[in-house]
Amino acid sequence: MKFCSECANPVELMVPAGDNRPRYVCTHCATIHYQNPKMVLGTVPVWERDGEVRVLLCRRAIEPRYGYWTLPAGFMENNETTADAAERETQEEAGANIELGPLFALLNVKHVHQVHMFYLATLRDLDFAPGEESLDVRMFTESEIPWDELAFPTIRTTLEYFFADRARMLEGGSYGFHTQDITRPMRGDS
Q: Are 125 and 158 in contact (CB under 8 A)?
């Protein structure tokens, strides 16, 4: 950041009085420009019939990770709840009609200043189609998931938790709530 969004004067990186972190501060109007993590919200959209479980994935039509597979997810907007954002992103990216379930995973991605949250979701029907940010939308069983073509570590982690919980459910278990700090960058990042 170079200029104040309030008065357009240059900003300086400094620790404001009463704070303990460097912030961009306007020396003209004294506005402190806080920069906080971004929230990424999405779903694990599931279709289950005759004991077979499939998860809906989207092939990205945007960078980063163009052409890689992801769960439907994206940045939370102002005036949304986390559930609103997860449902909206699923509709925008996959055109999917879902019944939103409980929050399933919360993943801290400190090195990119993000928090990723995924809700479980049940597909109400098979009427889905790629949105503007998706090249393709498909359902996969666990063995069909393109594990080496997943866009982000948070997607892999969430799917691993999901299928591990599914295996436990066959033995009388249930879905859990999972939280993890993701410290590994994407392939190709330094």
A: no
Q: 88: which 2 tokens?
A: 């909206």
The total of other beta-carbon atoms located within 10 Å of residue 113's CB is 10
Distance CA 59, CA 94 (A): 10
CB distance 86 to 157 below 8 Å: no
How far, in Å, are 1, 14, 96, 97 from residue 29 at the CA level? 16, 15, 47, 48
Q: How many CB atoms lie within 10 A of CB 131?
A: 18
Q: Which tens digits make up the pLDDT trace of 33-78?
A: 999 999 999 999 999 999 899 999 999 999 999 999 999 999 999 9
Burial of 160 (0-12, 13-18, 19+ CB in 10 A): middle
**Cα 158 to Cα 120: distance, rounded to the nearest angstrom:** 10
